[in-house]
Amino acid sequence: xxxxxxxxxxxxxxxxxxxxxxxxxxxxxxxxxxxxxxxxxxxxxxxxxxxxxxxxxxxxxxxxxxxxxxxxxxxxx
Length: 77
Hints:
Elements: E1 3-6, H1 12-25, E2 31-35, H2 38-50, E3 53-56, E4 67-73
């Protein structure tokens, strides 16, 4: 079962802290993330690509509109 985290209204750094913490404690389980920040989505995307994580679905968020995606660890073949 995957976790879910609503970070609407949090600062980018605080939201990333919670996401990393939940992913670490979840031992690789997918995490559903909900936000309304386009800059945060950009930060999350950069972090995901540099740490072998995948964001699904691929979206282009509009600032202020709530979006939800799943963060999952890319497993090596």
